[in-house]
Amino acid sequence: MLIKRLHKARQKVKKEKGRCEGQKPYGETPQETEILKRVRYMRRSSKYQPGMTYQAIADKLNEEGITTKRGRQWNPVLVYNILKRNRKFKRTRPPR
Question: Burial of 56 by CB count in 10 Å (0-12 exposed, 13-18 middle, 19+ buried)?
């Protein structure tokens, strides 16, 4: 009985918010949202200038003293995964 109630509660949260288990994606807090916008801007290429590499973005964030959600330094794989995950999460998130 308890398992059924927990399952129903998880399903309700998942329906309302799009996810309910695991670590929340980067960009949940206002500060993280601003950093994520900057990272997207740095990665974006234009007609006249190529976008920054994942390594260059990680180096820039580390230079500025910005840490990850867990307080660690940035690396190129983490930058790539966060951009990829947030792009995917935006598509699956239900409208508010």
Answer: middle
